[in-house]
Amino acid sequence: MRANFIFSEVWIGLRRNLTMTIAVIITVAVGMAMLGVGLMINSQVGLMKNFWDDKVEVSVFLCKKGTAMPACNGKAITPAQTKALEAHIKGTQGVKQVFFENETTAYENFKQSFSSNKALVDATKVEDLPQSFRIALKDPDNYESVIQAVTGQPGVAQVMDQKQLIAPFFSMLDKLAVAALTVAIILVLAAALLIGNTVRLSAFNRRRETGIMRLVGASNLYIQLPFVMEGVIAGLVGGVFAAVILIVAKVFLFDQIVGFFGGATALLGWNDVAQTITITMIIGVVICILASFVTLRRYLRV
């Protein structure tokens, strides 16, 4: 009987405040979706950084005849200089492994990297690409000392750290994640205020029933429970909509971004998405419960 009464009160409250309940659901859905997107971006950035940390290399491009680089003076590196440079690189502290890439290998890698740009591949010849040493580092963050040790060596045209090339992209993703989380926090606060107003309006509309319940000795929890359940239901429905948004974002945003790199990076898994959905739904429901309790304690003297 008590359960039937509570559920009937919940239904009455939802029906009387339908527009406010819909507003709460939409706000919770958008807020939790933004929070989830921010968490997913953080997870994706972490996966990509871990993926690339093991693959980031320092590229040492060697001089070719007629090279415009000032360090070459138009002269190609000699075989003796190539051997001496390789020995010098291997003896440098922080170097894990050294790979030599000749012109043919460089051209094949170039064709694979720019396969989507047929005009550029057709316009490039094997002899246009320089030989190079690819240096794998023990610590990818400690690349500056290796670059300093190699720069200026005879036959070296240019030294480039791949991490410097992808750093702006990761910086942009970090800023995007912070922006998404900031907007999410604002929307979560807005949802909490909306929930509080909805509960307050529902409590005001049912003040006579609440007064009768107090007179007959109903406990505070029993009086508060229907209002709290209204907030929980709104939070759960909003969380479901947020989950749908996060699944769509995973398929049409995160997977597309990884596809842009040709699959050459870590993909955000469905386990990560499920974990994010679980976290956002729990947060949404907890916010609804807290907002309901705080509002009732303030506006209902039970």
Automatic annotation (TrEMBL):
Annotated function: Part of the ABC transporter FtsEX involved in cellular division.
Membrane topology of this protein: Multi-pass membrane protein
Keywords, alphabetical: Cell cycle, Cell division, Cell membrane, Membrane, Transmembrane, Transmembrane helix
Gene3D superfamilies: 3.30.70.3040
Domain FtsX extracellular: 56-159
UniProt similarity note: Belongs to the ABC-4 integral membrane protein family. FtsX subfamily.
Location within or outside the cell: Cell membrane
Quaternary organization: Forms a membrane-associated complex with FtsE.
InterPro entries: ABC3_permease_C, FtsX, FtsX_actino, FtsX_ECD
ABC3 transporter permease C-terminal domain sequence ranges: 182-301
Name of the protein in question: Cell division protein FtsX
Species of the source: Nonomuraea maheshkhaliensis
Domain of life: Bacteria
TM segment ranges: 21-41, 176-199, 220-253, 273-296
